[in-house]
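Suppose you are handed a protein chain with no further information: no name, no annotation, nothing but its sequence. What can you learn? This example shows the usual starting point.
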Amino acid sequence: LISFHAELDRSCWIEMVSPVTSEVPGEKIYEIWNCPKIEALKNHDQGEHNELQFCKGETAKVHKKTTEGWLFVEKCSDGSQGWVPEKITKEVESDHKRAKNFKQRYQFLKALSEVNTTEA
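A reasonable first move is to predict its three-dimensional structure. Written in structure tokens, the prediction is:
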């Protein structure tokens, strides 16, 4: 249990440990320690000023994902940032993917143990 001397301390602590959320409906923001890594399947030329030129085989970390199929990424090669269409990418092995697999495994084992408990 954590106690605080002042309400301000409590508010600062809650803000620090709370996940970042977007004000844009449907937009997903990834924490820096949990962002998926993607690879370009084909080239994407920079269209708008906020889009990123992304060449086949390049990798990037995803910081934001929209429901319209766009990803805000940071290139692993040079740190440049911008938007790329999700349809030209694939998620590659990353901490995010491993965590997702671990969570699915945990849910499967938990469900399996509940089935075994009810059958006993």
